[in-house]
MFS-type transporter SLC18B1
Amino acid sequence: MPWQFNFTKRQWLTLAVMGLADFCNAICVSLQAPFFPNEAEKKGATATEYGLVFGVFELVVFIISPIYGQYINRIGPKVLFNTGIFTTGTSAIIFGLLDRIPGHTGFISAAFVIRIVEALGNAAFLTASFAIIAMEFPNNVATTFASLETCFGFGLIVGPMVGGALYSVGGYYLPFVVLGSTLFCVAILTLCVLPRHVDEPTENGGKKSFDDDPVEDPGCAGVLVSNLRNFCVDWIFECNVGTTLAPV
C-alpha cells in the first residue's frame, strides 16, 4: 500500500525531531517580515535596502549549500545539522538587537551581516537534512523530504503571524528572543536524539561515502535543485516584502 510505512522507532523519532527543527527554523527566518520594514524606515532605510536584507538570505543559501555538500563527509551530517540550528538561533536573537544601533548605515550593515550569518546556518541545516534523510530513509527519501518541506513551509506561514503578535506585545526584541530561544531548545533536543552516522564499509574494505557516487551526494544535486527553486521563489517574495509591507 502506498501510504503504509514500516518505519522503525528510530526512524519515526528522527523524522519527528527533524520536522520540529524544520518548523522552528522556518519561523525564525521569517518572523520579522511584518515589522522589520517599519523599524528600518525609522532608521532611514529605503525599501530597496531592507528588501535586499530579506533577499540576500536566499542568495547566500543558494551559493553556499553546494559547498557544504562537498565537505559534508568530513564534517559529519549531525555536526553540520546542529551547528546550523545553533547558528540560526543565535543569529535570530542577535537580530533582535538591531533597533539599538543608531544611524542608518550601522543598522543596515549589521542587518546584512547577521542575515548572511543566519543564511550560512540555515544552509548547513538544510544540506545536512538531505544527508540524514538519505541515510536514515533510503527507501522513502522522496516521502520524508516532502514531509520536512511541508513542516518548513508551515513554519514560513506561522512565522510572520507569531512574530507580528509578539512584536505587538513586547516590541522589537521579544519575537527574536522568544523564538530564537525556542530554536535553541530544539537544537539541544536534536543533539541528543539524532543518530550519529558513520561511513559504511564497502566490499573492498574501504569506507563508503557520498563522494564515491556523485548521483547519491545529497549535498550536490538534491540540495542544488531544491535551493535553486527556493532562490527563484523566495528571492522574488522577500525582495518585495519591503515594498508590500512598507509603512505609508
Summary: The CA atoms of residues 58 and 166 lie 25 Å apart. Residues 104-136 form the longest helix (33 residues). The beta strands are 200-201, 207-208. The chain has nine helices and two strands.
